[in-house]
Design goal:
With 251 residues, this protein is α/β, with parallel strands linked by helices. It has two domains: 101 residues, 3-Layer(aba) Sandwich (Rossmann fold), CATH 3.40.50; 126 residues, Rossmann fold (3-Layer(aba) Sandwich), CATH 3.40.50. Helix content is 38%, strand content 21%. The strands form two sheets. It has a five-stranded mixed sheet with strand order 1-2-4-3-8. It has a five-stranded mixed sheet with strand order 5-7-6-9-10, with helices on both faces. Helix 8 links the parallel strand 9 and strand 10. Helix 1 runs parallel beside helix 3, helix 6 crosses helix 10 and helix 7 crosses helix 8. The longest helix is centred in the middle third of the chain and has 13 residues. It is globular and about 55 Å long.
């Protein structure tokens, strides 16, 4: 499928192909890297079930975004709520080069944004301003970030939220500004803590030289159990309660 997509892209077409995230990024890893990314073609690889799903670890996207992030010319993006999905696909039509579009776990995630907004690939959104700490989220765990920020606000802690829908290219300026203004950053992602959002933000912070408190939350170095994905987020330490505790630990 990915090889054929590359051939169609060579003929001038913008090609979309989809399967579940681990198959897209591992079974077709070489084809996407060499056929699409190496030749910088307009192939949009769509990975469904990104993050922990009730289909178990073999059919869940645990490492997918990190795999594609390491490929030259690649773009990695993940909608943060259902309303962002059509915006991502519209933006993908105008983007030049290969893209990995990571979809959520399919748990009826719902809508976070109340008002319309422009979506720009590589430019983070800020659903909430704050001064005491920053939560940076990637993908559908934005809902957990919003829930945590509301809980903390009731306790007098003002948290900024950055929606980093694009993992690559990363909005470095948004990260640096947040580190300078709030001095505390927590990242959260429904993805392995290795080579995903947390790793990318840590790289920016180290290279910037800004001293800041930092925690990264995500799927730990395990193959997760079967079960309700939302409950498993709490079990593995990157749900709403874990975010509240992480911010408090930095304060």
């Amino acid at each position: 499928m990915v090889g054929i997509a590359a051939g169609m892209a060579l003929s001038g077409k913008i090609v979309y192909c989809a399967t579940i995230a681990p198959f897209a990024t591992m079974r077709a890893c070489e084809q996407f890297r060499t056929d699409a990314c190496y030749m910088n073609l307009n192939v949009r690889l769509i990975g469904k079930y990104g993050g922990i799903t009730n289909s178990g670890p073999t059919h869940s996207g645990l490492e997918d975004a990190g795999i594609v992030r390491g490929m030259a010319n690649s773009c990695v993006i993940c909608p943060s709520d259902n309303g962002m999905i059509p915006k991502v696909f519209e933006a993908s039509y105008y983007h030049k080069g290969p893209m990995y579009i990571r979809m959520g776990a399919g748990t009826n995630e719902g809508y976070i944004y109340d008002e319309d907004y422009p979506l720009v690939i590589g430019k983070a959104l800020t659903p909430k301003e704050g001064k005491d700490a920053t939560i940076i989220s990637f993908g559908m765990v934005l809902r957990n970030a919003v829930e945590a920020a509301n809980i903390l606000m009731n306790e007098g802690i003002d948290v900024k939220i950055i929606d980093m829908h694009t993992l690559k290219p990363l909005d470095v300026d948004a990260i640096v500004e947040a580190a300078q203004s709030t001095k505390r950053i927590v990242t959260v992602e429904d993805h392995s803590i290795y080579n995903g959002l947390g790793s990318a933000v840590a790289e920016v912070l180290m290279e910037s030289g800004i001293q800041t408190g930092f925690r990264r939350l995500g799927i730990p170095d395990i193959f997760p159990a079967y079960g309700d994905p939302l409950k498993l987020r709490e079990k593995y330490g990157y749900g709403t309660k874990a975010l509240v505790d992480a911010v408090k630990s930095l304060l």
